[in-house]
Amino acid sequence: xxxxxxxxxxxxxxxxxxxxxxxxxxxxxxxxxxxxxxxxxxxxxxxxxxxxxxxxxxxxxxxxxxxxxxxxxxxxxxxxxxxxxxxxxxxxxxxxxxxxxxxxxxxxxxxxxxxxxxxxxxxxxxxxxxxxxxxxxxxxxxxxxxxxxxxxxxxxxxxxxxxxxxxxxxxxxxxxxxxxxxxxxxxxxxxxxxxxxxxxxxxxxxxxxxxxxxxxxxxxxxxxxxxxxxxxxxxxxxxxxxxxxxxxxxxxxxx
Length: 255
Fold this sequence. Notes:
two-stranded antiparallel ribbon
């Protein structure tokens, strides 16, 4: 008969599974510090030896990492999404910027649709809370905070889509965006008119998701990223024009 004796699962295996799920679902984030061993063992209700065994297994698989005198951290699981050579290529070639925005437009449109349909009431509260923080940063005219909240807003929508593959893929690309690989996000927030337009576009995305209007949410994301493409094109053209003007000026001075 095809039956096998059921054996109690080791406590360390249960710990491993729980931490795996938290990382997979994006609740524990790359490079996030875990609580101390004592606190974590108390929260999980397991002994320290069982916890150490679980941590050792997760470390061996690269999901956790130890830092001397600093504790245990979630591994840099996004770091392997793109090779350093490819990241350097992204930085050096302008076409990568616009391909990146097109990639975001396709996937974030889907994510916004899914968030409107599948997001829980709490997911939608998170999105709405971040948007209101964006409004606050906008009033303070803080382009750095506004740019960071912009990324958090889009990632919250992706989290609300409840697709773990999409979540980790987009987190990897947003990590590169934060590093300035594709473009300097703060440039987009230095012009008052642009900042006003961007806030209105994020408001439209938020309103559609809060209303659970999937089609409107997708359309708002597409419109927003079309605008970003246009603004970046204009910015890059302006930079090229300035380079030419400086050459002309230098030539005139030497004549």
